[in-house]
Amino acid sequence: MEELIHQAAEILAAKKNVVALTGAGISVESGIPPFRGKGGLWEKIDPMKYAHIDAFIKDPAEVWDVLIKSMKEVLDRARPNAAHKALFRLERAGILKTIITQNVDGLHQAAGSKDVIEFHGSFAVQRCMDCHATFETGSLKLDSLPPMCQCGGILRPDVVFFGELIPPNHLKRSQLLAAGCDAMLVIGTSATVEPAAYMPVIAKRSGAVVIEVNPEPTPLTRLADMALMGKAGKVMSLLAEEVEKLIRQW
Ligand code: APR
Question: Shortest CA distance to 203 belongs to which of 185, 221, 228?
Fold first, then answer.
C-alpha cells in the first residue's frame, strides 16, 4: 500500500489541475453513517419512503421525524476528520482545485476547503416550500414537526431528494471540471448514484488519471487507474504527506 500511495502522490504532485469527487465514505470517520453497505442508513429505512420528494410532500412530519431530525442530531455533532483535512492540505499545496461532494454535511468547508460544489445540496440551510426564505439549520427549533416558516410554509432541507434534479449550475460546472481536470480523486463513494457517478467516467474519457480511495471495490474500480483500498482518513493523510514531501523536494 505504501508503494501505491507513493506512486499516486507522484502523479498528483506533477498535476496542477486535480478535482476530487467525494461521497458518504469520507465522513464515516466523522461519525456519519453511509447510505449503503454495512451499517448504512438505507438498510434501516427505505429511501423511497423517506428520502423521495413525493414522500416528503405526502407526509412532511413523518419524514422530518424519521429521517431529517436524526440527521440533524448526527450532523450537529460531526467534525472534519483526517481525510477532509488532507483534501484541504492538497488545496493549500496548489494541487487540488475543486471538490465535488455528494455529501450535505458541510465538513469540507469546515476543514478549510474553499471551492466545494455541493452536488446534492446542503443540510446547513432550510428552505420554505412556499416563500423560499432560507434559515440556518442550526437555529431551528424542532418542538413541533414539521418546522414552519413565518409565512406558514413547511421547511425542508436545501438538499436534493430522490426524484429531484441536481441544480443545473452544479451539474454543468462539475461536468466541465471533470472534462478539464488532469486527475480525479474519487473518495468514499459507492459510485452508484447518477449523475454524480458519471463524473469520473467523463474525467477518464477526457484523459485524466482516476485514483479511487475506498476500502471496498465499487463499479468504478475497473475504470480507475489506481485503487487505494483503505479507509479515507489513513490513506488521504499519507497521500497528503507524500505530496507535501515531493513538493518540498522539487
Ligand atoms: N473511507 C472511505 N470509504 C469508505 C469508508 C471509509 N472510512 N467507509 C465506507 N466507505 C465507502 C463504502 O465502501 C462505500 O463505497 O463509502 C462508500 C459509501 O457509499 P454510499 O453510502 O452509497 O454513499 P455515496 O456514494 O455518497 O451515495 C451517493 O446516495 O442516497 C444517496 O444522496 C445520497 O449522496 C448520496 C448518494
Answer: 185
Q: Which helix (H) or strand (E) holds 11?
A: helix 2-13
* Residue 28 Cβ contacting ligand 1 at under 6 Å: yes
Q: Whose CA is nearest to atom 8 of ligand 1?
A: 25
> If you measure from the C-alpha of residue 157 to the centroid of ligand 1, how many angstroms do you get, rounded to a whole number?
20
pTM of the model: 0.96
- 151 plus 240 within the same structural domain: no
Residue 216's domain spans which residues? 1-31+80-120+166-250
**Which CATH number is 63's domain given?**
3.30.1600.10
Residues 53 and 177 in one domain: no
Express each pLDDT in 106-137 by its tens digit.
Answer: 999 999 999 999 999 999 999 999 999 999 99
Do residue 44 and residue 144 come from a single domain? yes
Phi and psi dihedrals of 249, rounded to 5?
A: -75, -30
Report the distance separating Cα 42 and Cα 45, nearest Å. Answer: 5
